[in-house]
């Protein structure tokens, strides 16, 4: 038996898991198939300018990485303090002619982070078996990838996706490593996990302020609990906290943030005060908590609930403070809204939908935690040392539980039937539609026609046609008719043109 076990295995049958895995893999087919038509846009040209020039002139990976570093330093001083995000942005795949790999990288990073975290948490701490981890992981990933507030900004547009979706996956990896550090393992394994978590904490804080703040709150809570219990792992948790805090300070104190903030204030009536931003965070957290509860998402959460309830029933946790814990959990969720509201105003929650993607991910994890804790509290209100009562409870639970294959079939049918009720386009269905109606290939064809004009050295002032199609998962932004628009200037510099513009 696992020495860290708190539960007995939940499931030993894999018929239902085959169905959920098959369903998940099926949803990935359109996401990956349409990736061959993916195109760079907007900030991709800003951060990829210097690295593209270096790569084309030298072909040296080292020189390109050095240029990315210099681009990061320049951005840090003049525009953006998120040093790790700007470094990654400078390495955007179109520099190497590999932009079609963007959604593959983003999806695989989320899959890895989700399963790595769930495996350590469920199997090493809750003694769930591999099938349980597989089922919960696939169900959660379907919800994460299919109902994104913005699929293009979360998976297909590199600069937006790498700054938020990829950083989110890194956060899951960080907490998985911390859980490994807490276990009774060989010393070298424990401290390798701790060192890796420290590095990730520092880099994540240089990725975006939302992930940084939420991670710091969780790390502080974990360190406090360990300190209260006089657990020696408190020191390691504090160390990760310190590395993360240093990364946040470096990001927040960047001179470029002031430049960007001054530019942002030109379009804001007034910047919210810190207190106002915090209060608004609770307001919008409640609003989006309800808004994201669409019928198919609710059906997906119901699919998760059965195994989470069974895990909670078998758990040895006390679940003594349901109201306090749930209030604190919602506060952590609301904290993620504070950075964008304070920096950009509440309107950023509408037009910066790449921000909303990771807040939506946090929303799903909040639901998982709520289901586990509430059901655990309900089950553990009655004394479990009474064998008769315990036997009755087990019998009832067993009667309520369908066989995995039947339950999975019913759940998948329910989920599919509710898809038309989704509040945002479903990622795979939208991608499939664009593939079938030809808009994806037409979009790529028109983008390549533009590229031929841009690469024609005899043309200094390039006027191009507007896109006739804008596939939902592929199109993010475009140049304008005004050659002085920042998007136009970025593309012109990227291709060494005097100007570019949409033809009137």
From TrEMBL:
<dbReference type="Pfam" id="PF19528">
    <property type="entry name" value="DUF6056"/>
</dbReference>
<feature type="transmembrane region" description="Helical">
    <location>
        <begin position="18"/>
        <end position="37"/>
    </location>
</feature>
<feature type="transmembrane region" description="Helical">
    <location>
        <begin position="400"/>
        <end position="422"/>
    </location>
</feature>
<keyword id="KW-1133">Transmembrane helix</keyword>
<feature type="transmembrane region" description="Helical">
    <location>
        <begin position="321"/>
        <end position="338"/>
    </location>
</feature>
<feature type="transmembrane region" description="Helical">
    <location>
        <begin position="289"/>
        <end position="309"/>
    </location>
</feature>
<protein>
    <submittedName>
        <fullName>Uncharacterized protein</fullName>
    </submittedName>
</protein>
<feature type="transmembrane region" description="Helical">
    <location>
        <begin position="98"/>
        <end position="122"/>
    </location>
</feature>
<feature type="transmembrane region" description="Helical">
    <location>
        <begin position="134"/>
        <end position="158"/>
    </location>
</feature>
<keyword id="KW-0812">Transmembrane</keyword>
<feature type="transmembrane region" description="Helical">
    <location>
        <begin position="358"/>
        <end position="379"/>
    </location>
</feature>
<feature type="transmembrane region" description="Helical">
    <location>
        <begin position="235"/>
        <end position="254"/>
    </location>
</feature>
<keyword id="KW-0472">Membrane</keyword>
<dbReference type="InterPro" id="IPR045691">
    <property type="entry name" value="DUF6056"/>
</dbReference>
<feature type="transmembrane region" description="Helical">
    <location>
        <begin position="164"/>
        <end position="182"/>
    </location>
</feature>
